[in-house]
Structures are given as C-alpha cells and as structure tokens.
Design goal:
Blueprint lengths: L4 H27 L3 H12 L5 H8 L3 H13 L3 E5 L7 E5 L1 H23 L4 H18 L12
Antiparallel strand pairs: 1-2
Length: 153
C-alpha cells in the first residue's frame, strides 16, 4: 500500500497552519507580538551584521516582504537599521534594547506553547523522528537549507 501523498501534503500544511495560529494567538495575547515578528527577531538576534537578504533567506520569504516587515518592527521600536560597516550601500539590522527584552520574554512563551502543543502530544523519541524526517524533506526540496539552529535558551 503506497502513501497517499495528497493527504500527507494536506496534513503537513494544515498542521503548520494550526500550529502557527496557536502560537501566534498566544504571543498576541501575552505580548501583543505576532509570530511573524518573533521569527524575524530571532534571525536578527542570531545573525552577525544581519541584512534584509539574510532574513529573507533564513525565513524563505521575499526580500520585499522582509523589508516591509523590518520597517514595521523598526517603527515598533524593536529593531533599528544602521549603515553596514564594510558596505555603505546596505544596512545592518539589529535589535534595540526593548527588542532584545521582547525577544527574551516572547521566546519563553513560544517555547511554552510548543511544549504544550507538541511535546505533550507525543514522546520525545517520536518528535525527534518527526524533526529528522521533516528536515530531510526540506533538504531534498531546498538543498541549501541549514541544519536546525540551536535557539536561545
């Protein structure tokens, strides 16, 4: 019996949507912060001399969409742009002090919701297998994908 790939696709997409919405709702309630903003802030935090292209590549979104999102986060006071030290044609994006604090507290909420939504749903061994399989599929579709990054503690 072969795997119903259409059903697998539906399950993966719906799982991602359901999980995103659950985490996003909790972040909005507790921090008035969207998951999209948090994801971008995590990339800024872990990327030295972070540029829009770095964020775009890390999140698999367009450069234009990334730039608009950075604009909104900058207006919100959570990040700032400064001239790139080696390339004056581009800018480095960095978190502000309030942005660093928001990242810290929102990341705790993020991890808490993932624990509730994922870790409580199945044993760690099963989650590890799911993580390995998901990453293998991403590598197949996008050979340049980086291995999972250890997140802030």
């Amino acid at each position: 019996m072969s795997t119903d790939l259409a059903q697998l696709f539906d399950d993966l997409v719906r799982l991602e949507t359901d999980l995103w919405n659950r985490v996003d709702a909790r972040l909005r309630i507790e921090h008035d912060l969207s998951l999209a903003w948090l994801e971008l802030m995590k990339v800024i935090d872990r990327t030295p001399d972070c540029r829009v292209l770095d964020i775009s590549s890390a999140l698999s979104i367009t450069v234009g969409g990334t730039s608009k999102l950075v604009d909104r986060i900058e207006v919100g006071g959570l990040c700032r742009r400064r001239p790139h030290p080696a390339d004056r044609r581009s800018f480095v994006i960095e978190l502000t002090t309030p942005g660093t604090e928001m990242l810290r507290t929102a990341s705790m909420t993020f991890r808490s919701e993932l624990t509730h939504s994922l870790n409580d749903a199945m044993p760690d061994r099963s989650l590890r297998r799911l993580a390995d399989l998901t990453h293998a599929l991403r590598l197949h579709l996008h050979p340049g994908a980086q291995p999972p990054i250890q997140r802030m503690a």
